[in-house]
Design goal:
- The chain is of the alpha+beta class.
- It has a single domain, classed as Jelly Rolls.
- The protein has four helices and eight strands, in the order αβαβαββββαββ.
- The chain has a four-stranded antiparallel sheet.
- Strand 4 and strand 5 form a beta hairpin.
- It is elongated and about 110 Å long.
- 15% of the residues are buried.
Length: 183
């Protein structure tokens, strides 16, 4: 009798398992998954003391550099870039008004975009500028086609004055935040 009871119980349990409410598994859901990571990175940094600026003389360039920037050179990366923001921060504690220019270059060395900053002499505070690329900003192709950065800084003042600030210098920082869509 017990054997019949357990067999019936097992059969009923099996029927409930087979006919229970289950959904068919959809392993194709990964195709519908969208991932949009934001990647942040430093781009360009330089600093120069007032002595270096004075030694270059008045109304001349005291800094020049050109660097390779192939972040977006891979087609996959360039094609999946949705938007980007480049943040510039400049602090001038020298007695000189200065001009800084950063240029975005393509593979042929042609200028795709440029940002120019005219900075007053100390006390000028910290200048911050955000430049948007993508919807509502500059053309996203500028970032996608950039393979180099060129930066120059010039003295717009005299070549002799010295700031009363301890350790007077110009500090230029830049960084970027880039949003990608991965599928």
């Amino acid at each position: 009798m017990k054997r019949l009871f357990y067999s019936a119980l097992l059969a009923i349990g099996f029927l409930f398992t087979v006919t229970s409410c289950t959904e068919e598994q959809d392993f194709g859901q990964i195709d519908d998954l969208n991932i949009t990571p934001t990647i942040s990175s430093g781009l360009f940094y330089f600093e120069s003391d007032e002595e270096t600026i004075n030694s270059a003389g008045p109304n001349t360039s005291f800094y020049y550099d050109e660097v390779t920037f192939e972040v977006f050179s891979e087609d996959y990366v360039a094609e999946h870039l949705l938007e980007g923001t480049i943040i510039y921060e400049i602090e001038n504690t020298t007695s000189k008004p200065l001009r800084i220019t950063i240029e975005f270059l393509n593979v042929d060395g042609r200028v795709l975009d440029a940002e120019t900053f005219t900075i007053e002499a100390d006390p000028s505070g910290i200048l911050t500028r955000e430049v948007f690329y993508g919807l509502g900003g500059k053309n996203l192709d500028i970032l996608a086609n950039t393979t180099g950065l060129r930066m120059s800084a010039g003295n717009l003042g005299d070549g002799t004055s010295v700031s009363s600030t301890d350790d007077p210098k110009i500090i230029f920082r830049s960084g970027g935040e880039f949003l990608f869509e991965l599928q």
